[in-house]
Amino acid sequence: MIIQINAMREEHLEQAFGLTQQLTWPHRLVDWRQALQLGEGVVAEQEGEVLGTASCWRWGSDYASLGLVIVADRAQGKGLGRQLMQTLLQKLEGYTVRLHATEMGMPLYAKLGFAITGGIAQHQCRELGEVDPIEPGPGQQLRLATPDDLELITVLDRQAHGQYRSNLFANLFDSAERILLLEEQGKAAGFACLRRFGHGYLIGPVICRDLPRAKVLISTLLAGLAGQFVRIDTDSGYGLGEWLNSQGLIIVDRGVTMVRGVPWQPDGMLAFGLMSQAMS
Predict the structure, then answer these.
(1) Is 224 inside a domain boundary?
(2) Taken in order 16, 22, 26, 30, is the CA torsion positive or negative?
(3) Could you tell me the CATH number of the domain that includes residue 232?
(4) Cis ω on the peptide bond leading into residue 136 (within 30° of 0)?
(5) Is residue 149 a part of any domain in this protein?
(6) Of 58, 133, 172, 225, which alpha carbon lies 20 to 30 A from 37's?
(7) What is the pLDDT of residues 19-67, one digit of tens each?
(8) Which sequence ranges are marked TM in the entry (predicted)?
(9) Alpha carbon distance 202, 172 (integer Å)
């Protein structure tokens, strides 16, 4: 029977969700819906059965991310992963594309022109203990961001990784629990988002200049989450991991950051917490 590569549509999401359940990935159906709303995807389909998926997100005119690349166990070895990837990469011609790879996926991505640029660590805790918030320093203050801060947050985010994600933040102002803004001398110096994802809560994106500021933002959000499942995905090179471990959020998995094109050089801001491994 012929396997077709088709555009992902709403009616495919139940089966896509089922594929992530088989892999024990934490994505909820609502997480899949958000992913499709913000981007686009393709499915490998045989007589109405979804055997594989891949999704991508265009963040402005130069940078994109790619993820949720899945092939069902019974369809492995047929080259579906490569077909799905190639279909999306044709759509992303001219973009610098970033993804986060498992060890199993790395060889395929390397053959498709992706190079390793770093690593990420997934930290989580099934039942968070009490966390004391770190007080802002002299001249710093924290406040809740509002939709009026959309462009400001978008600019800070872009400084960290080149992606222009205004549509993402418009979505998060509607769907996230809260977005916390750090100000210094009245000017924005970073932000952190708390939202529902998977088994509980996820903190990310977290964007700011350095590690002390990241700790202020993250600890303030953690302080209200005692007893909850909490996850943070962070860049392994930014030094946040040891502190997260001390707060009870231990490393449960690692991934590799790979880029096809010229990697962005951070411009005064760093991404200490990812939106998700797929959409970052």
Answers:
(1) yes
(2) positive
(3) 3.40.630.30
(4) no
(5) yes
(6) 225
(7) 999 999 999 999 999 999 999 999 999 999 999 999 999 999 999 999 9
(8) none
(9) 12
Tokens of residue 19, six digits: 């594929």
Q: Model-level pTM greater than 0.90?
A: yes
Same domain, 88 and 136: no
Let me know: does 144 contact 183? Beta carbons within 8 Å.
no
Output DSSP code: residue 235: E
Domain identity same for 71 and 152: no
Q: Could you tell me if 127 and 262 lie in one domain? A: yes
Model confidence at 119: pLDDT above 80: yes
The total of structural domains in the chain comes to 2
Structure tokens at 154: 């978008």
Is 80 exceeded by the pLDDT of residue 224?
Answer: yes
* Cross-strand bridge partners of residue 119: 256
pLDDT tens-digit readout, 84-116: 999 999 999 999 999 999 988 999 999 999 999
Residues 73 and 144 occupy one common structural domain: no
Q: Where in the sequence is the domain holding 139, given as residue range(s)?
A: 123-273
Tell me if 215 is assigned to some domain: yes
